[in-house]
Amino acid sequence: MSGNSTIVPSVLDQLSASGHKKVVFCNDPDTGLKAIIAVHDTTLGPALGGTRMWTYNSEAEALEDVLRLSKGMTYKSAITGLNLGGGKAVIIGDPRKQKTEALMRSYGRFIKNMNGEFITAEDMGTTTRDMEYIRMETNYVTGVPESLGGAGNPAPYTAKGVFLGIKACVKEVFGTDMLAGKSVVVQGIGNVGEHLVELLRQENVEVYISDINQDRLQEVARKYKAKPIDADKIFTIGADIYAPCALGATVNDKTIKTMKFAIIAGSANNQLADEQVHGQLLLEKGILYAPDYLINAGGLINCYAELTGFGKKRTMQLTENIYDATREVIKLSKTEQIPTNLAASRIAEKRISDIKKIKSSY
Ligand code: NAD
């Protein structure tokens, strides 16, 4: 063995380090399925999380991704008040070339064999059609189309949660949650972004929009009288609020330096490039950050509704709780002088440890 070989922690050591309960490696040569299902924590309920299909460069990279994402789901369910644990799955492969009915159904059988400990939904690289294939093999799947008894497109609920997260932050910074006259930059006007633009324009907010899809940019600008801007203007514009609704890691060393926003609140996952560093930097700069996994939980609430049979009214009520939950995070952040992302983690961890205690009695 070479003297300078890098020491890679064993899989079980990685699970211990991140507090994971279980990881299932799925291998089916007949269909080409190679997947990893991670169950982080099931204190609050079965582990729910989407299935991502992606061309990972290595199994180690896929494992790292699924461990990180499943842990995030534990926190998201906990802070949203749902009785769900955290899980996630990744299928290794190119969704455009390697996805077949047989592969998805084979994957569904692996989920079935977990007997309800893990429930899945869509994520990057998977669609409602794929959820239908999984449903052919197991009931432990959500995100199937409304026509098949599912709860349908989660984006309107996600957008509503983000909108309420913005309101909760505006209340903190400006003393009122009236949005009229405020300005917001929405980066990415896809499924969630467009719904958000609509809600903001209904309250007479000045909305700037940016997207790499120029046709869509012009269409949404016309439809809602929003102002299209170039991507390179986002972090220098003098708007009140930045709503990232496209990619993650847009809040980083470079962008924080130039941004003049008072608030960051959007739907994109993992907005802070480095949770440890950038939450603190935003606090020091006086920019209020609404933790992404809290305010974008409307989609998860929609999955929960599908499982529990809640109707649209209850789904909307649960989504509306995001306003108060955001206010609670801001309050803790202020009293403890800690970044809002850290305050959110503390609230989520407290709920998990409290519920663990009640489970000690039969
Ligand atoms: P989407 O694919 O419908 O829309 C994304 C939009 O962003 C597209 O219009 C795309 O052209 C644009 N985009 C991509 N790269 C960009 C860039 N560099 N600059 C500007 N625009 C860019 O996705 P979505 O469902 O609207 O989700 C948006 C974000 O919210 C994602 O990060 C997603 O993970 C997150 N999210 C979505 C939901 C949901 O219910 N859909 C729930 C939770 C979190």
CATH class of the largest domain: Alpha Beta
SSE succession? HEEEHEHHEHHEHEHEEHEHEHHHH
What structural category do the secondary elements indicate? alpha/beta
Largest sheet: 6 strands, parallel
Q: Could you give the order of strands across the largest sheet?
A: 8-7-6-9-10-11
Number of domains: 2
Strand segment count: 11
Oligomeric nature of the chains: single chain
Strand content: 15-25%
Give the bound compounds. Answer: nicotinamide-adenine-dinucleotide
Mass-distribution shape:
globular
Pfam families: ELFV_dehydrog, ELFV_dehydrog_N
EC number: 1.4.1.-
Protein name: Glu/Leu/Phe/Val dehydrogenase
GO molecular function: oxidoreductase activity
Describe the structure.
GO terms for molecular function: oxidoreductase activity. Its EC number is 1.4.1.-. It is a single chain. With 362 residues, the protein is of the alpha/beta class. The protein folds into 2 domains: 2-71 and 85-148, Rossmann fold; 155-350, Rossmann fold (3-Layer(aba) Sandwich), CATH 3.40.50. The protein contains 14 helices and 11 strands. The strands form 2 sheets. It has a 6-stranded parallel β-sheet with strand order 8-7-6-9-10-11, sandwiched between helices. Helix 4 crosses helix 5. The chain is globular and about 55 Å long. The mean pLDDT is 95.
